[in-house]
Amino acid sequence: MKIATYNINGIKARIEALPRWLRAEGADADVICLQEIKSQDAAFPREVFEDMGYTVATHGQKSFNGVAILSRLPLEDVTRGLPGDPDDEQARWIEATVTGTRTLRICGLYLPNGNPAPGPKLDYKLAWMARMEARVRALMALEEPVVFLGDFNVIPQPLDAAKPEAWQGDALFLPESRAAFRRILWMGLTEAIRARAPATPGLYTFWDYQANAWERGNGIRIDHVLLTAQAADLLEDAGIDKQVRAGDKPSDHVPVWVRLAA
DNA sequence: ATGGTCGCAAGGCGA
User: Fold this and answer.
1) What range does the domain containing A225 cover?
2) pTM of the predicted model, to two decimals?
3) What are the residues facing A220 on neighbouring strands?
4) CA–C1' span, A26 to B7, in Å?
5) How many domains does one find in chain A?
6) Closest nt to residue A61, judged CA to C1'
7) What CATH number is attached to the domain comprising A51?
8) H helices of A10-165, where?
9) pLDDT, tens digit, for every residue of A127-184?
């Protein structure tokens, strides 16, 4: 089973590029977690994807944020929202269960950006990450295959930025953000891309629209796939579909995927 | 040092 994450930066703006990638030679994703759909549930063009054979589950809001899951397999037990703060109205978390040869819990996430930092945006990011840590811990206790994937808005290491010095002081690269990411990861998850390529430089998932970042190779790696031990045991391959950034009217992010023996 | 580019949606905010 191939599972992917793709921050599309607006479903309306990506209504050509997203199906183009889904149909692309070699893409062949079974489950796709989308971020920044920037749409309410009722406005999401679900029939476009249903006509392609996908089941669609959305957790949207007006104008900003919003996550969704597309799946060739039935989506069961869909839940929306990250537990831990009933007053949090931002649509950034969706879970579903899919069954191929194995049953997997899929958690699609859009972690807060946190800029400008310091300030309330960073406080929200770190509080959100603490809530995520609690949710991960609860799911890990089940000792089942779980996949956490999405736009984490965290550059884990200097290796994950073409110009790490340019990100000093940015919420994506602050020591507090990176430490919170490690607290989640080091509970015992496997980060799929680094499991396959531990020290390979130049692996990026985002290139800013500004200042010709793509043409200059000025990227960062902020979209991640984290696996529980039971999911990591099924890991066959992982990759980044970098070429998508060179397509017509692209998102500023590209898809990241894993293939699991499931 | 500043502003550079997008998306949403219709003026700025978020990234």
Assistant:
1) 2-260
2) 0.98
3) A161, A206
4) 29
5) 1
6) B8
7) 3.60.10.10
8) 17-23, 46-50, 120-140
9) 999 999 999 999 999 999 999 999 999 999 999 999 999 999 999 999 999 999 999 9
